[in-house]
Amino acid sequence: MSATETDKSPQADDSGMAATDPRKRRRVLLIVGALFVLAAVAWFLLWLLVFSRRVKTDNAYVGGNQVAISAQVPGTVVAILADDTQRVEAGQVLVKLDSTDAEVRLQQARSALAQAVRGVRQQTSSASGADAQLAASRISLKKAEADLQRHLPLLAARAESPEVVQHLRDGVEQARAAVATAEAQARAAHAAIEGTDVAKNPAVMQARANFRAAWVAAQRNAIYAPVSGYVAQRSVQLGNSVQPGQQLMTVVPLHDLWVEANFKESQLRHLRIGQSATIESDVYGGDAEFHGKVVGLGAGTGSVFSLLPAQNATGNWIKVVQRVPVRISLDNAELDKHPLRIGLSTTVTVDITNDEGRVLAAAPANRPVAQTTVYDRMASKADAEAEQVIRANLPDDTH
């Protein structure tokens, strides 16, 4: 190989590499640009199809009813039958108070009811006696009038003395007065019992109401659970002297729970009642997902209902993004599988694809938010006891 050829070879290689580098750079830039474009398109599609159709917050907590158990009558605690974390059923006795005084008052009311029934029976007998006396008075009047009529012709024929006839006339007047007195006494006797039977007599009904009140007061020395749930915050102790309204413990039903999701005001635009929601609880992580619906939006922001609301009219005002509580219902079947406790943290995602619903409830609720029949059963038992006392003091032929 000649020297000339040897000198030209490196120059040719340098020019080829110089020509290749711009092409590689352009190719790399095109690839990188394409990747950015694809990422932007993917992000846009993700936002359009997913993120724009949901709102999400982790400022959400499980809520539920906290039923305060308190005394309804004063007394001294003699037994505590439920403790923190224990399950209780509606109607179960939780606390017992000393019932000595209440039992005495109940016996007094029982005796008063029995006496009222017997008193009405006595009034009924008196009314019957008054009726009999009235009938006898009317018979006496008819006899006196008949005697007078027989002697008047004799007086006209001068066969009877005027004194005898006058005496008969006086007898008729006395008989008429006796009839008037008997009628008044009969009316007075019937006024107390007329129009009702013994059980419906006002005196018996008043005594029955007093007995019912005493019976219920005696039963209230046993403090019942109005709902089924779990005991929390027990503060009552044996020997405590409690007063009506004093809280002794709390029962928390872990069914019919909800989630209070505090969304930013900028997230409320498309939130509507009835939209579906998914909830993840921190206690289960991704192992359990709950499903619910939006049942209502709060009437104000959390700061408005705080203990010390912010005074935004002051000169030190700083704008803070406000949050509004949104209530999300939970499925009881899912709660049975994965129980939750009130106050637990959750993450809520609401599907806002359909935002045609209402923001505010259109009509009042047509069923109770919560209801118990425990105290109704107590009242029905009181009525049954009163009826038994009344029947026991009626004649055998009226049972």
TrEMBL record:
<dbReference type="InterPro" id="IPR058633">
    <property type="entry name" value="EmrA/FarA_HH"/>
</dbReference>
<keyword id="KW-0175">Coiled coil</keyword>
<protein>
    <submittedName>
        <fullName>Multidrug efflux MFS transporter periplasmic adaptor subunit EmrA</fullName>
    </submittedName>
</protein>
<keyword id="KW-0812">Transmembrane</keyword>
<feature type="coiled-coil region">
    <location>
        <begin position="165"/>
        <end position="192"/>
    </location>
</feature>
<keyword id="KW-1133">Transmembrane helix</keyword>
<feature type="domain" description="p-hydroxybenzoic acid efflux pump subunit AaeA-like beta-barrel">
    <location>
        <begin position="258"/>
        <end position="350"/>
    </location>
</feature>
<dbReference type="InterPro" id="IPR050739">
    <property type="entry name" value="MFP"/>
</dbReference>
<dbReference type="Pfam" id="PF25885">
    <property type="entry name" value="HH_EMRA"/>
</dbReference>
<dbReference type="Pfam" id="PF25963">
    <property type="entry name" value="Beta-barrel_AAEA"/>
</dbReference>
<dbReference type="InterPro" id="IPR058634">
    <property type="entry name" value="AaeA-lik-b-barrel"/>
</dbReference>
<feature type="transmembrane region" description="Helical">
    <location>
        <begin position="28"/>
        <end position="50"/>
    </location>
</feature>
<feature type="domain" description="Multidrug export protein EmrA/FarA alpha-helical hairpin">
    <location>
        <begin position="100"/>
        <end position="220"/>
    </location>
</feature>
<keyword id="KW-0472">Membrane</keyword>
